[in-house]
Amino acid sequence: MPDVQSTVLEFVNKLRKRKIEGSQATAKCTAELLRSVISQQRVPHANQASALIDAVKAVGEQLVAANPVELAVGNVVRRVLHIIREEDLSLATAAMAGLDLLDASDDEEDGNSKGVGYSPMSAAVVAAAARSTLRPPSLQTLLEGTPESAAVPYTSSSGADSESKTADKSSITRKLKHDVIEGVNHLILEISGCHDQIAEQAIEHIHQNEVILTLGSSRTVLEFLCAAKEKKRSFRVFVAEGAPRYQGHLLAKELVARGLQTTVITDSAVFAMISRVNMVIIGAHAVMANGGVIGPVGVNMAALAAKKHAVPFVVLAGSHKLCPLYPHNPEVLLNELRSPSELLDFGEFSDCLDFGTGSGSPLLQVVNPSFDYVPPNLVSLFITDTGGHNPSYMYRLIADYYSADDLVM
Amino acid sequence: MWIRSADWLEQAQAAVRRYPEKDSPVSSRPFAVIEEFNNWRQQPDLAEAVAAIRALAAVIRASEATTMMELEIELKKASDTLKAWDTTSISLTAGCDLFMRYVTRTSALEFEDFNSAKFRVLGRAEKFGEISNKARKIIAMLSQDFIFDGCTILVHGFSRVVFEILKTAAQNKKLFRVLCTEGRPDKTGVLLAKELAKLDVPLKLLIDSAVAYCMDEVDMVFVGADGVVESGGLVNMMGTYQIAIVAHSMNKPVYVAAESYKFARLYPLDQKTLEPALRPIDFGVSVPPKVEVERSARDYTPPQFLTLLFTDLGVLTPSVVSDELIQLYS
């Protein structure tokens, strides 16, 4: 598969050079790449699921290593792994049910020689045990554990029936791959449709004559505000300009083009204006498992200001931004330092800056982080494509979207 | 269909018949449970919940029950006596409840006959010590990400899990410093310091009242747990609450290390809701007879002061605890 290998490399390079921006675009590209990886992957007869998982994991590791700060990549890889596991499980369960019938009919013929290697447990029990491996561990399963006998038929489920009916085999193989690709397609649709899903809820949150503050530029926020406008709500938007990249200017331009009352303020004026604001709405770069948010730099300041004045702080995030990891030291580990040229012109300050040529350290240093971490206690509400959620509820969504085995890649 | 119901009726009658006449041997049984429990508790590395579950397993082994229902009734009695024997121990209660719930959920139907179900329950109970040890290892592994080089960790009291975490970190060649509180009145902090000193971890001992004074050099607080309650709050050795308040006010994370079998179905509303576990306190000088002495051995820390829980179920926010408990007991 040289072509897949080269597309992977191309994508890795793009990620490494930060050519792709925005978590939605990255997520979508990742999902599309993984789809082609899966469709090109040749699968053996036995254990096709694990072959697919290995292939996806191998590519996923490269992608994550290329840009560890863009958490959406890892999220999508984990989602795809989860899809493979789920599809394999549903096929295995179906196969087990069929096998169980066969087993029962065999029993009647040759008396009590049940020893085909299967425990006397029903298919339902096995399926339940296998299903529990997909779920994160819980108190319920603490004592139960996975019965060893159940684990064996589960892993060899696709291998076992190949002995008896090879003809069916290839169709099952194709079925798994087909189902997985179907699932990934669904995921891609979900990622590209998340703006609309989130925007649909705008009318419930934005009311007549309200003042909304936002910071940085997010397409989700833009669509959200416009959706409320389309429903004939009239309100005013304050846009913090988002230095040093001034993406707020672009957002303001777009908002005005769509006919919204817009005011541009400097980032430093957020605290001064917050008492006039009814709600702060921002787009997230990533949402962590504890409900903390990684957003454009300056967001923590806005969140603190909102807290001080008891203004609701609402975060919009598509489900591909949900990251199953807990942040430790997020200000440093999940941040990216960008070029000083965004702050200072090279010409004017070239005397003070030392570009690695002179001796000794330069007197002038420039730090230009791109992200901020907002702790969960400052967030009032998350709006995702599945509805509004409390920060403390994030772990629940994560349990739905990811398998426990994939959390550490 | 008819045959089955007749069968069931017979068994039920047998069970009813059995109980009144068994009353006299039953009266000696509660003794046996507690003795068994105390036997297990002698082992130094065994948690209380594990001892409780092992004691209940002994009840199953000695039981002459022939149906799951009978077994459940017998176990219920035994676990009630165990719980009544020490009402203040949260992990004992939680361990008994967890095991009872497990037995109820393991229906004989799934295993086709009573004996195999019984053996399975017994097998799991006997493995519980292993499960508990494994839980400690998992927790130690999960917490490693949070201990960064050069950090200072404040610990309070002696907790086997916290010790395991610090031991693993030391073995992973992490560079960190530990501040141990003294842990009055039984000096459990000194005990922890002794153990840590053997691992060559840089240490500082402080008296319990020096916590606020030292908090500015601390990067994170690690505490163990007697029990984690349904609100996500924590019941632990006296002094945990004030440490958590100080840490919270100075924006330092408070991490709780607790095995998931310590999750208990309690919902304390304030400090005094729980039955206090009293303990003698030696002040070193004689206390005048009319002076009251606060002898409670533990306090309750509400969830808003806790940052994360490290459990064998993963790294959790306090709000997950109620979810897990509801899932198990609904």
Automatic annotation (TrEMBL), chain A:
Cellular component, GO annotation: cytosol
Protein name listed in UniProt: Translation initiation factor eIF2B subunit beta
Predominant cellular place of this UniProt entry's protein: cytoplasm
Single GO MF annotation: translation initiation factor activity
Pfam families named in the record: IF-2B
Family statement: Belongs to the eIF-2B alpha/beta/delta subunits family.
Entries under InterPro entries matching the protein: eIF2B_beta_subunit, IF-2B-related, IF_2B-like_C, NagB/RpiA_transferase-like
Highest rank taxon of the organism: Eukaryota
Subunit (UniProt): Component of the translation initiation factor 2B (eIF2B) complex which is a heterodecamer of two sets of five different subunits: alpha, beta, gamma, delta and epsilon. Subunits alpha, beta and delta comprise a regulatory subcomplex and subunits epsilon and gamma comprise a catalytic subcomplex. Within the complex, the hexameric regulatory complex resides at the center, with the two heterodimeric catalytic subcomplexes bound on opposite sides.
TrEMBL record, chain B:
One GO cellular component term: cytosol
Positions of transmembrane segments: none
Protein's UniProt keywords contain Hydrolase: no
Subcellular location: Cytoplasm, Cytosol
Pfam families cross-referenced by the UniProt entry: IF-2B (PF01008)
Gene Ontology MF terms: translation initiation factor activity
Keyword line: Cytoplasm, Initiation factor, Protein biosynthesis
Assembly: Component of the translation initiation factor 2B (eIF2B) complex which is a heterodecamer of two sets of five different subunits: alpha, beta, gamma, delta and epsilon. Subunits alpha, beta and delta comprise a regulatory subcomplex and subunits epsilon and gamma comprise a catalytic subcomplex. Within the complex, the hexameric regulatory complex resides at the center, with the two heterodimeric catalytic subcomplexes bound on opposite sides.
Family, per entry: Belongs to the eIF-2B alpha/beta/delta subunits family.
Protein name, UniProt field: Translation initiation factor eIF2B subunit alpha
